[in-house]
Amino acid sequence: MNAAGAGNASTATNGTPYTTPAAPSGLSVTNGNSQVTIAFTAGTNNGSAITNYQYSIDGGTSFTAFSPAQNASPVTITGLSNGTTYSLALKAMN
């Protein structure tokens, strides 16, 4: 803008911001020694590649990101207590 006023507007274009990825589905657990391995079908990434997953061992109350990052099925959660039942959940990050 200057003393003569604003210039002409550009041609309009469309844009769609990324949304969060969809939840993984079809979780299948294989028990191991102090660990579980979870196979799953990834949900849609909704515009940006999935870079990691987070897991919950308390039914989804709190989540921890895998380190190092895991971006595909299956994933393994270690450091668990043998004989303890865990309520497992996964969510994707992008």
Overview of this protein structure:
The chain has 94 residues and is an all-beta fold. It has one domain (25-93). 0% of the residues lie in helices and 33% in strands. It has strands spanning 25-32, 35-41, 52-56, 64-65, 75-78, 89-93. The strands form two sheets. The protein has a three-stranded antiparallel beta sheet with strand order 1-2-5, with no helix packed on it. Strand 3 and strand 4 (64-65) form a beta hairpin.
**Overall average pLDDT:** 94
Strand content: 25-35%
- Trace the largest sheet across and list its strands: 1-2-5
Q: Rg, please?
A: 21 Å
Shape: elongated
How many domain modules?
Answer: 1
Q: Percent of residues in helical segments?
A: under 10%
pLDDT under 50 segments (min length 5)? none
Question: What class would the helix/strand composition place it in?
Answer: mainly beta
Tally of alpha and pi helices: 0
Order of helices and strands: EEEEEE
Please outline the major beta sheet. 3 strands, antiparallel
Give the terminus-to-terminus CA distance: 39 Å
Number of DSSP-assigned strands: 6
Summarize the entry for a quick read:
With 94 residues, this protein is mainly β.
Fold topology:
Layout: E1 25-32, E2 35-41, E3 52-56, E4 64-65, E5 75-78, E6 89-93
Antiparallel strand pairs: 1-2, 2-5, 3-4, 3-6
Q: Which descriptors apply to this entry?
A:
94 residues, elongated, mainly beta, 3-stranded antiparallel β-sheet, single chain, 0% helix
